[in-house]
Amino acid sequence: MSEKTNETGATPVLRHVAFIMDGNGRWAKKRGLPREHGHAFGVKAFRAIVDHCGRLGLEAATFYAFSTENWKRPPREVNAIMKLMDTYLGECEKKLDQYEFRICFLGDKSAFDDKRRGRMERLEALTRDRTRILNIALNYGGRSELVTACNRLLAAGKKNVTEAELNAALYTAASPDPDLIIRTGGDLRISNFLLWQAAYAELYFTDVLWPDFGPAELDAAIAEYYTRKRRFGGV
Ligand code: IPE
Ligand code: IPE
Ligand code: MG
User: Which residues lie below 8 Å from residue 30, measured CB to CB, with a gap of 6+?
Assistant: First the structure.
């Protein structure tokens, strides 16, 4: 069993919620707008949910913003997402004192230019001493994360590894395992998200499209989470 698995009795503890923010494109299409507009409204929803996670006192919140497979999209859409990302990074820099979270970016930053990567690294460094974690998965894939972790361990001379060592080599090393993974947009899959960390996560799927997902929808997901019986393989 992973050291980070959150094993509890009947009432599950909620330390970490992770979000697959899906449905931006369909939200825009329904309104006759280009897909990029859906992403812009998706960022608004993201901000509101980050604030709500702060109010809920979660130890960690993780947001899947851009996958290793999302580069396959048309350049116009990818560029629009990168622009939104840059705006958000600038906003974080400016309001750093108002943000209570330690910011961690999950994913391979080498795909980004020096300027963007520099900003991401600066935000991580400036918030490193904070305890509560905001993970933003950008150019993230669960398979790529596992391969990167294996290569790190091999480069460190390891010939055998324990679960704890593999855990510590992942992008999420600082976070507990997710207790609850929420996917909006109606699709019932995990799309290469937190493959290792999700081992015993509770999964919650909703048809609500991400730009429409607000604090009330998160509260409903959490209320359902508290009705679940987590057994972690036990009885
Ligand atoms: C999720 O929304 C955001 C990203 C993957 C960047 P989508 O863009 O996948 O929206 P749909 O699934 O096409 O509606
Ligand atoms: C998952 O959504 C990735 C993110 C939310 C960033 P996708 O829209 O890329 O997933 P698929 O293609 O429907 O599996
Ligand atoms: Mg999608």
Answer: 209
